[in-house]
Amino acid sequence: MVTKTEETQLNRLEGQVENGGGGAWDYLCFVRKLKVRRSDKVLKYGLSILNDPKKRSSLGPEEWTLYEQVAIAAMDCQCFDVAKDCINVLQKRFPESKRVGRLEGMLLEAKGSWTEAEKAYLSLLEDNPLDQVIHKRRVALAKAQGNMSGAIEFINKYLETFMADSDTWRELAEIYVSLQMYKQAAFCYEELILAQPTVPLYHLAYADVLYTLGGLENLQAAKKYYSSTIELTGGKNTRALFGICLCTSAIAQLTKGRNKEEKDSPDLQSLATAALEKDYKQRASDKVSVLGSALKSLKVSS
Amino acid sequence: MAEDLVLDTAIRDWVLIPLSVVMVLIGVLRYFVSKLMRSYQVPDAKIVKEGQVIVRARNLRSGANFIPPKAFRARRVYFSNEENGLLFVPKGQAQNAQAQMFSDPNMAMDMMKKNLSMIIPQTLTFAWVNFFFSGFVAAKIPFPLTQRFRSMLQNGIDLSTVDVSYVSSRSWYFLNLFGLRGLFSLILGEENAMDDTQRMMQMSGFGFDPTKSLSAEKDSLDIIQHEWALPKFEQRAEAVLRKLVS
């Protein structure tokens, strides 16, 4: 995940390169480090460096990394001939390489020849059954074909061996949510929270899933996770604030008449609404009235 | 009693500096040789899986208070279940890892190579130092020492009345042996700064022994009491919001 300072730095470099200020190589290295997807710019500036033989030779051994980066960007922008050229250059330099094999598989995938791509990946996996990247590419292949259950099956098998990989758990959670399998998605988000308990994103997503599942216990748990998100982000997360309001009104609806529940945080909802109003006044003052009516409808039902 | 001996500057020029230079060069040479000789070790699927299981169990322990109690209990049973829990290792298999490591020819070869690249330069340098640079006082240590160090530091010097601060070149060799790590980290980059002492420690370790760590993780997991931290968060969120709104 990219931090705010890195984002501003990236934008600054991008602006600098676009206005002809040089520094294209720094920009490309930075994009590569942050794993951000800016394929059209990478393609444009990468090709300009690669087609200029003087600049290319000044790169030294980094030249091959640049070829790989440009090949992937070309595939993103559907420029298959550019990608094919880069891959050929790499193959001449590094025959029998796993990395080049992966690029070839990606090219087949980009062109849409699913079965051949699958065959290529399977043969690569035979040589290296523990290669994480190839496994993930297989999952991406299944997902691109729209075969969600196949993708889930591949990910589960992958996670049996590599169960400490947070990115994969995240991907699995998102797939489950898209298929509305909320209980399984909740499990995945619990794994993510265990691995990185201070990342508010996972608390928020877990709270969303719990709220969607419904039921009194889940709603109460969702409220708690929304509050932990608020605490972790210092109260600035609008979604969590809304979540608190919604949860409180939903809980109140479910427990109407049963006043045995002791409210250990009675002011939470009013505080959340106050914070929301303040936020909207600051940032989107024309929408304050919409906000007001929405909140009022929530309060009425509570 | 302690008369100051005046040491010839020629000693500094021809003993101390060349010895340090030689040791630095040998360290750099060893680094490059090890890079050339490094053989690619195919990771065993079982070992990779066990490593990842341990990481996941550790995550479960550290983050246990952040997930609901039911979820925690379900995971704990999954890990430490008697029959097919991930962390459960039947007693018979426990001793196999070390025996396997010895019998596996590839691993034995690797260990041998690593040990050799360590022992041979040390032995050669030490013999060289002894042969050429013994029998005279090489340096003076700036702080006073007790008499017990005499046998260690003044090995070539056969006079028993010389102050212990005056040491032989053998001790300069040992000083360099333990102290050149900082220099190597400058020259070779941060992660390659491996001093000889660290390599010696690596030599004695037998590498990754998963079964012991698995049962250790299982025990610590069994001990944990789950205390759901989330209810407190509601009050903390209230406090945060109060500060924000006011």
TrEMBL record, chain A:
Residues 100-209 form the EMC2 TPR-like domain. PANTHER family: TETRATRICOPEPTIDE REPEAT PROTEIN. It holds the Pfam family TPR_EMC2. Component of the ER membrane protein complex (EMC). Part of the endoplasmic reticulum membrane protein complex (EMC) that enables the energy-independent insertion into endoplasmic reticulum membranes of newly synthesized membrane proteins. It comes from the Eukaryota. The keyword NADP does not apply. Its main location: endoplasmic reticulum. This is ER membrane protein complex subunit 2. It is found in: Endoplasmic reticulum membrane. Keywords: Endoplasmic reticulum, Membrane, Repeat, TPR repeat. It is a peripheral membrane protein. The keyword Zinc-finger does not apply. Belongs to the EMC2 family.
UniProtKB/TrEMBL annotation, chain B:
Signal peptide: none annotated. The chain crosses the membrane at residues 14-33, 119-143. It comes from the Eukaryota. The keyword Transmembrane helix applies. Pfam families: EMC3_TMCO1 (PF01956). It is found in: Membrane. Keywords: Membrane, Transmembrane, Transmembrane helix. Its main location: membrane. InterPro entries: EMC3, EMC3/TMCO1. It is a multi-pass membrane protein. The keyword Aminoacyl-tRNA synthetase does not apply. Coiled coil: none annotated. Belongs to the EMC3 family. This is ER membrane protein complex subunit 3. It comes from Hevea brasiliensis (Para rubber tree).
